[in-house]
TrEMBL record:
Ranges where the FAD/NAD(P)-binding domain occurs: 30-360
Cofactor(s) in the UniProt record: FAD
GO molecular function: flavin adenine dinucleotide binding; glutathione-disulfide reductase (NADPH) activity; thioredoxin-disulfide reductase (NADPH) activity
One cellular-component annotation, GO: cytosol
Protein name: thioredoxin-disulfide reductase (NADPH)
Matching InterPro entries: FAD/NAD-bd_sf, FAD/NAD-binding_dom, FAD/NAD-linked_Rdtase_dimer_sf, GSHR/TRXR-like, Pyr_nucl-diS_OxRdtase_dimer, Pyr_OxRdtase_I_AS, Thioredoxin/glutathione_Rdtase
Family recorded in the similarity comment: Belongs to the class-I pyridine nucleotide-disulfide oxidoreductase family.
Species in which this protein is naturally found: Takifugu rubripes
Keywords: Disulfide bond, FAD, Flavoprotein, NADP, Oxidoreductase, Redox-active center, Selenocysteine
Keyword Phosphoprotein: no
EC identifiers of the protein: 1.8.1.9
GO biological process annotation, one example: glutathione metabolic process
Pyridine nucleotide-disulphide oxidoreductase dimerisation domain span: 380-489
PANTHER family registered for this protein in UniProt: GLUTATHIONE REDUCTASE, THIOREDOXIN-DISULFIDE REDUCTASE
Length: 507
């Protein structure tokens, strides 16, 4: 630690700290100040430093209502993509153990999962990433790091302040989970900010969902490690995704063991003398009320951008009053010169870590005068890490039909069975893929959707092909890798329009 303290890197805790974009002398303390130490903010700051800019990063994590807090790296590293994927892997291993018996492995009974062991391993990995961001990245690039509350960073100014000046300011503070405003919700519930840092098993859990993919992912790994898990859905699952695929995902989850309470809304949460949480909810169509007890209630009802405490209204930064997000131009600039915003906090941007990282890097190059390239937000691939993974890139079938008309698109599809499922005798009824194309001309691919094993790994390659303008004929010209699930994509030949059976037969 002594060597760490002697380094040029500056680590400060200052309760009277503000950031300005101008100085009467025309000189600045920094070329760039990035507010937000998440994946996007760190990517932007590191890229700026690599091209010769003097950079500072301001970061702060407001503890959740339950008191959960974490280190540098933002949502993805601490309470999002990384711990989620690791716990998803824990659940997949549980399924693999069951499959293994069919493949001849002699596994003694009973098999059980220990939450504490998994949680400790996952949390230790996350802490190693926190440390890596500090030392290997920021310290090695001489990027200054400051920790303070966001409300201390911008206007209005109190007396006796410390002012830091910068030529450009980038806001990349992301968002935090919402909690429903019903009796007992705040006192007794948790969010995705807490679930990955629990030291003991959450036990019997109900997840209240407002179309969130995170909710289904959490429900999937909780079910997979053997916990009684219910998902309460107000309307539909995976809003914004292809709805045929969303139904396949939830159908598989129901067969997997996850319970669903469809078209229901919670009314109140009460803590019983036994310590259990009694949840009262209403079925929307009938107005009937129901009750059950749980050990844990997880709110997954959307996220709010971290803009309220920054004083942006006094700076003149234009914000969408309904969403709370910052309105930005294609170059990520705001309504105030020299202030930029990107990632989840920016209006109209995909709430995905890789897009924020890419956008941050490109912005750093533009601000340094090294490039004029803008971020292309079209055809960004993503994957939902549910028990049966769902990967997609491009337009959903609904969106393609909306843009091109029902007669202007052709949808090729197939139900297939992964080879891994055969010996294990696993149901593959929801393993499905579809390629949405323009109907005329070269049949340019508009969207590609896939449910099945390793969907993310498969979809990454096809995302590149869509960026290159892939057409259906390109698929047919591609030789598959046999035997793989990805091979089924380049073999697809049945259209929905034909009405023919799309079930793949043979190997």
């Amino acid at each position: 630690m002594a060597a760490f303290s002697r380094a040029k890197h500056r680590w400060k805790r200052d309760n009277l700290f503000r950031v300005l974009t101008r100085n009467l002398t025309g000189k600045y303390d920094y070329d760039l100040v990035v507010i937000g130490g998440g994946s996007g903010g760190l990517a932007c700051s590191k890229e700026a430093a690599l091209v010769g800019q003097k950079v500072a990063v301001l970061d702060y994590v407001e503890p959740s209502v339950k008191g959960t807090k974490w280190g540098l790296g933002g949502t993805c590293v601490n309470v999002g993509c990384i711990p989620k994927k690791l716990m998803h892997q824990a659940a997949l291993l549980g399924t693999a153990v069951k499959d293994a018996k069919k493949y001849g492995w002699q596994i003694p009974e009973p098999i059980f999962h220990d939450w504490a062991t998994m949680a400790e391993a996952v949390q230790n990995h996350v802490r190693s990433l926190n440390w890596g961001h500090r030392v290997d990245h920021l310290l090695s690039l001489d990027i200054s790091l400051f920790f303070m509350g966001y409300e201390q960073m911008l206007f209005p100014f109190p007396l006796n302040q410390t002012i830091l000046t910068a030529k450009d300011i980038v806001i990349a503070t992301g968002g935090r989970p919402n909690v429903l405003q019903i009796p007992g919700a705040m006192e007794h519930g948790i969010t995705s900010d807490d679930i990955f840092w629990l030291r003991k098993s959450p036990g019997k859990t109900i997840i209240v969902l407002n179309s969130s993919d995170v909710a289904l992912e959490c429900a999937g790994f909780l079910t997979g490690i053997g916990l009684d898990t219910t998902v309460m859905v107000r309307s539909i699952a995976l809003r914004g995704f292809d709805q045929q695929m969303a139904v396949l995902v939830t159908d598989y989850m129901e067969a997997y063991g996850t319970k669903f309470a469809w078209k229901c809304i919670p009314k109140k949460v009460e803590k019983l003398t036994s310590g259990a949480l009694q949840v009262t909810w209403m079925e929307i169509n009938t107005s009937k009320e129901y009750q059950d007890t749980y050990d844990c209630i997880l709110w997954a009802v959307g996220r709010a951008p971290e803009t309220k405490l920054l004083g942006l209204d006094k700076l003149g930064v234009q914000i969408n009053k309904e969403t709370g997000k910052i309105i930005v131009r294609p170059d990520e600039s705001t309504s105030v010169p020299n202030i930029y915003a990107f990632g989840d906090i920016a209006e109209g941007r995909p709430e995905l870590t890789p897009t924020a990282i890419k956008a941050g890097k490109l912005l750093a190059h533009r601000l340094a005068g090294r490039s004029s390239e803008l971020m292309n937000y079209h055809s960004v691939a993503t994957t939902v890490f549910t028990p049966l993974e769902y990967g997609c890139v491009g337009l959903s079938e609904e969106e393609a039909e909306k843009r091109h008309g029902k007669d202007g698109i052709e949808v090729y599809h197939a139900f297939y069975k992964p080879l891994e499922f055969t010996v294990a005798e696993r149901d593959a009824g929801q393993c499905y893929l579809k390629v949405v194309c323009e109907r005329e001309g070269d049949q340019k691919i508009l969207g590609l959707h896939f449910t099945g094993p390793n969907a993310g790994e498969l979809m990454q390659g096809f995302a590149l092909s869509l960026k290159c303008g892939a057409t259906y004929s390109h698929l047919l010209q591609t030789v598959g890798i046999h035997p793989t699930c990805a091979e089924e994509v380049i073999k697809v030949n049945i259209t929905k329009r034909s009405g023919l059976d799309a079930t793949v037969t043979g190997c």
